[in-house]
Amino acid sequence: MSAPVEISWFGSLCDDDYEFLGVPNRELQSSWNHCRAIAQTADRNGFDNILLPSGYQLGIDSTAFASAIATHTEQINLLLAVRIGEMWLPQLARQLATIDQMAEGRLTINIISSDMPGQSLGSEPRYRRTVEFMHGLRSLLNGERLEIDGEFAQFDLEPPRIATVNPGCPPMYFGGFSEAAKQCAAEAANVFLTWPDTVASVGETVADMRRRADAFGRELTYGLRAHMIVRETEAEARAAADRLLSKLDVDTGEQIRNKSLDTQSAGVSRQNELRDGANDDGYAEANLWTGVGRARSGAGAAIVGDPDQVVAKLKAYQEVGVEAFILSGYTHIAECDLVAEHVLPNIEHTALRPRWN
Predict the structure, then answer these.
(1) Check: CATH 3.20.20.30 for 6-226+305-346?
(2) What is the mean pLDDT of the chain?
(3) Long-range pairs for 142-149: beta carbons < 8 A, 24 or more residues apart
(4) How far apart are CA 193 and CA 176, in angstroms?
(5) pLDDT tens digit string along 135-157?
(6) Does the predicted TM-score (pTM) go above 0.70?
(7) Residue 170 to residue 180: CA distance in whole angstroms
């Protein structure tokens, strides 16, 4: 029997909730009330974790939201996206430890290596900065004195008094597809996240990252970020996918894709390749539909089908090494209920444990 996987939902803090892709709906716009409802729905439905994404022009602030939703949820872990460089490292450590206490030990961390708004840094130095900050953050949250004289981080200080509920640094999730990003993950992350792709391609990514991590004497857990469209029949699921795109204007879709700071990344390029290679209906392989990427930067494909097909697809990814899934769907509350009804009971799942130091 396969080991349990972690199944997470998506918090949609970055203005990414639609009934029809590319058609703004004020009621679905990111706000405290709407995003709180998504998180509480995922919590009530038994998801293990929820990604709280971070953007600048898009949506609401992830750290502020996490501190509030920590006291409005009961069981679900909070996967807080942190953009490295936005926050002074010692202050970031204090914030994360405080939020973890507010959540009674349910915090996990999604490390984002991105240009800061208004600034641009080359890929390789940006990931060198990320590695330094990840090592520094881990030391402080482990309760260790931080002594570092790096290219971007220079500190000699004691850790803050406040600490996480479960001793040590919460697991760090990280995604990236350039050479520099993969090396960063291999050296410093705990969970490597990949975007939707064919099962074979995901398996190749896992094998590649295992080799890279082994070179550092480390082991990683592997996760997949994907959208979901599950209905009682395959025909209904495919019709729901078609409906989602039925009002999309091509120019509007391109504008939405270009809003993100990561539009030139290697990961986005791979999503574009996947979409370009799909069949006329947008399917890159059985039950993997690339239509979402026509109006979204980042993860650009959905698992589409009836409950048996969707569960089989997730298990196929599990067989090639995926141990964590971050799922989403449109609208986020309605699809969360459908995935909870049709998928969660058929896959053994639990939050990732133990925490890594």
Answers:
(1) yes
(2) 91
(3) 142/168, 142/169, 142/357, 143/167, 143/168, 146/90
(4) 8
(5) 999 999 999 999 999 999 999 99
(6) yes
(7) 23
